């Protein structure tokens, strides 16, 4: 039965939450079942002299490319996880194809029946590899139960051992791992009492090199695989007895015999020319002498069960060729191509078929190599030097700001630098994330996209939305030390709990239940996702989930009228010739920054004099805010690692390299933290704080112009919409938050009347013992229009930094961040 004639099998191989042992057992059972219905595997085993009884006893199977038809679809999370599990066991290749396709399979079993290894012998023999092993298993001795004998026959592979057992000789073993017997295998043979070994087969020379130091070895060179010799003989038992009688004792110091000629009654196999392979998955060339095969389009494949390519074969001597488009995974399509090519090139059908088999395996290998290369793109020496020049520039942070401006962001220097350092912090031990908050069309997505555009593709996981369980079922290491960007916080609403854990704990784990196919009972399997990640979120919500917000740095986009004018001017400039030139230069800037980030090493950072930093401790929120400040400093040191002092220390006999953050990293972190961390202490979101400031300004202006008491001045939503240019939803939701927090009072009115509001602070009696600041003004002396609280840091504001104290590490003084930053006077 050909693959093209089959439909997806209705019975699944296993459930999606299967153990490795049960999964391997299911695969072996599938291969055994496919052997029983195969039209080619049975005759092939008979030609090797292997009987049906031995085949069933040793669980021989056949891989006919139908395993994938019994797996969940690759697009499902469980399907990807199951295929990843098969790759780990060595049953699947990274390209998504079966490892043992076209092979007879023979498991290596322990005395208790546990699977120690899996061997495969390809039926269609050519110049490529003919034997395969499952790389995810430990291996052992094939037919280990025969080691109770004092004298054993040793053959090169499990297939040869099956041929020997089929003629009635049970005292035979074979290596159960690639590369022959291990030292542990040889010790196991010695402990079992084995003293004499007779090595049969074409690989005797290799086996003797491993065994002649520990055993008395006799050799029988055959010049061809033993299974072919026994299968082609009219009397296999007599042929085996003759081979054993001719055993030549082998001394570890003597000269080894070379394989002799084939027996007279065995025809010589046709000479197969070794192919020459060049190119990659996009265009691959496989040459057999004067015949050249060309494969195009393999790099565009996405599914594991299809390999549709443009295939051409050309005879370089006479110029004849054949070209067609086909799916290399379909046997019928391959057969049709060989038929047509044989007629066009006047070549032997059998030779072309063998060459096409090699072309198929070369294409699969090229796909696997392209998958590995895609993880870390190659970097030219010129690009490397360009990236190193950027990392070594003393004006690095200024250049980052300038390059981000070229990418289309106007202003927002502080927000840009904090977001950029957040993406750099993915390489640190404790990354920090950001959430960019603004109203619609204010530019939050432009800011986030510009920063994420500079992150290498392999380090960025970008999603438009996340379902509640999505993060639990990504690959175990798919998010480790990467930037996780989600377009809108609303799109991740159902995944908020998972995001909180991933940011705080740096890992995710979940236990899910499924039915065990062997027992029919429910069983539990754990899934774990490693972090940490640097999270980048955007949102238009006036109020963010407080549990998520206090884990991230909240960035408020500038929505002032002056910023709008600046953006419009930049848009007009982009439509000019100057703007065209700037757009053409963007890709070079992006590639330079991506290469620079690839050159950054994920080294730990130490902050000299960190004990001298003083941070507010009035609220539990300050525990996390303090860590955000330290993460800012560490991210700056990581980014400047080519300009910072690096050291090493011995820890438990292991050398650990680290980076020393200097005073400029501390100053940068404190300067940025004074602006963005102060906002985190404000009970009002940046948008709501701006609305409150606008309300106060509007009331005071009207009170002065109308000579009225501010406590008697009311205002409506419509007045605020006309004043600010905000939408009705923005004004209504913001006023609702201010009323709930008692900054404003809603004036009762009847049905159909306008909604009116009063300033709550304007109603406070003016004859109090102590003067009070307006409630909308955060402590620290900042104007309400400054959008949030403040964190005062020595040397971190626009004022000149104090002179460094020579007695303090790194030359910086004790730094204080205001304890009441951003808190309104209640």
What does this structure look like?
With 826 residues, this protein is α/β, with parallel strands linked by helices. The chain is 36% helix and 18% strand. The chain has 25 helices and 30 strands. The strands form eight sheets. Strands 5-7-6-8-9-10 form a six-stranded mixed beta sheet, sandwiched between helices. Strands 11-12-13-14-15 form a five-stranded antiparallel beta sheet, with helices on one face. Helix 5 (158-166) links the parallel strand 6 and strand 7 (172-176). Helix 10 packs across helix 11 (349-375) and helix 23 crosses helix 25 (728-740). The longest helix is centred in the middle third of the chain and has 27 residues, at 349-375. The radius of gyration is 36 Å and the shape is elongated. Mean pLDDT is 77; it is low at 1-9, 250-272 and 766-826.
Overall average residue pLDDT: 77
CA gyration radius, whole angstroms:
36 Å
Note the total helix count: 25
- Spans of at least 5 consecutive residues whose pLDDT stays below 50 are 1-9, 250-272, 766-826
Strand residue percentage: 15-25%
State the oligomer: single chain
